[in-house]
Specification:
The complex is a heterodimer of chains A (about 325) and B (about 325). Chain A has about 325 residues and is mainly alpha-helical. Helix content of chain A is about 75%, strand content about 0%. The longest helix of chain A is centred in the middle third of the chain and has 36 residues. The termini of chain A are close together. In chain B, helix 7 packs parallel to helix 10 and helix 7 runs parallel beside helix 16. Chain B is elongated and about 75 Å long. Classes of the chains: A mainly alpha (about 325), B mainly alpha (about 325).
Chain lengths: ~325, ~325
Amino acid sequence: MTQYIIRRVLISIPLMFLLSLTSFIVFQLAPGDPIQALIDPEEMLYMGPHDIEELLKEYGLDKPVPVQYFLWLKEAIQGNLGYSIQTHNVPVLELIIDRLPPTISLMTATVAVGLALGLLFGVISALYQYSRLDYTLTISAFFMLSVPEFFFALMGMFIFAVTLGWFPTFGMWTPGGETGINWDLLHHAVLPVFALAMNDIAGLMRYARASVLDTISADFVTTARAKGLSERLILWKHVFRNALIPIVTLIGLRLPVLFGGALIVETIFRWPGIGLLGYTALLQRDYPVIMGVLIISSVITLAANLLTDIAYAWVDPRVRHT
Amino acid sequence: MSTESRAMDDDSAQPGAARSQAAADLAADDDLIHLPPELSPFRRAIRRFLSHKLALAGFICLIIMALLAASQAIVSPFDPEKPHLFKVNRPPDTVNWMGTDQVGRDVFSRILQGARVSLSVGIVAVSIYVVIGFIIGSIAGLAGGYIDDALMRFTDFVMTFPTFILIIILAGITGPNIFNIMVIIGIFGWPGLARLFRGNILVMRELEYVMASRTLGAGQRHIISRHILPNIVGPVTVAITLGVAGAILAEAGLSFLGFGVTEPAASWGSMINSARGIAFLAGFPWLWIAPGAAISIAVLSINFMGDGLRDAFDVRGRSQSGE
């Protein structure tokens, strides 16, 4: 097991490297001159070419691009992701760390809701295969996979917040009210979480259904039945365990998609996470912040994939030995 | 599965008399006896697809959308980009079937224009990534060894990247324009297809008839074009279909955030984007419900079609596809 973890971690290192390189290249593509972005245009009028050259030298921008990359990487590894242009030189890392908890809680809640309802519906659908319930669930899954999350979000807002008034329209807490993990937060979270979770519920439901159907017809289940085990024992000990555990890995794979969805949902519900931060930064062309958001969300995705792989190897010994 | 095959099963289960009668009928018509074996796999797939009701409905829906999009200039009741300041934010009526927007443009005409954008972005983006996926997947599958390892690691990497975030950033940086959108969505969609091509090539290289062909001296190119490609048409068609749905959703998401198609041209996503404020949301719901429904119907049709194709081409075995 330790060996597997070490190998898996080692594989992630070149991935991280590739990731930083991609982010750097994307940043290089951005139009505009970093010096111009840094300096007040009025001040610029009084500066000669010599001053600008000196600034370029100071920031290491006179060096060739590959050298710039390594300089940047050195800083980034130490946690210096640069300074935000728009918010008057607040460190990017600080901005992101502030905005991370809302996004993480939104995504965790989404995964939890997605797993709970997805597996539940999937199992029901499989156990009552070809029943009317199965058809209804399958067709609803198609709807949930096809309707974009922003349309779900707007419909949810229109129906449950504007028309019925059951839930607040945006934010994490009632302005002026108490913050922290409380009922108010939960109340605010329902609409965004469900808008984001629809896709997961449907996707996991389809997988769970296929997986349960597959396992139910496996030989070891027939054996269990032949031994005279009760149906309940067969389902819980043999079918569900074998059918549903592989689904754990899907969470890791869905995470990159979830980040995109979270960005959209956060902008709709004004949920103050890194998605909203990245979106406003993009509108303001605040490139260091955009870069930071890209890097942090990729690092989290990689880390989560690492964790799901290790968790999977832990529950399924076969994985370790291949 | 199909009503037809069920009917045939019923026939064979019937008691002797009726069965021999049926056999006699069959024997009387020479063509009928030979009909089943003469059906090519492709025609059988078409038959199966046509018997899949939802898939057929999706297909018809999509054809109608494509026709409307193609003939948009003729069928559009109004100029989709022409403001009309005397009829702003009108609810749907008999003249403007889906109402008018903030500057009095006809929503229905803009939906038609949006159909053009969405469908073309979907098709072009997917074409781009089919080509990339094909090249990377077949090189990996055929070369094997280190090249395969490196390419597959890279594919895994692209899959773990939060692609949509990167797409948004690239679209935000390169500037909103439909061509950029197509390319940006296209260059990140290929990993699934690359794996599909590679996996199928690896499996098929070991199939007996392929080995036989190789033993007889067939070259790599012959094996690919005659044996491997025809066999992956099914899975690839399914992947392409679902890919178009994904690309349409990606474009809608981008335009919704304001990084896609911009005014005055319409795309479904950007129409919703311009109706986002809470006042519009509550007061003029047709402005966002119409384009939202259009996206959903288009994607749903394509997904139903993809499911039908999966059954038709027998991808993943018919037993678990659940009709």
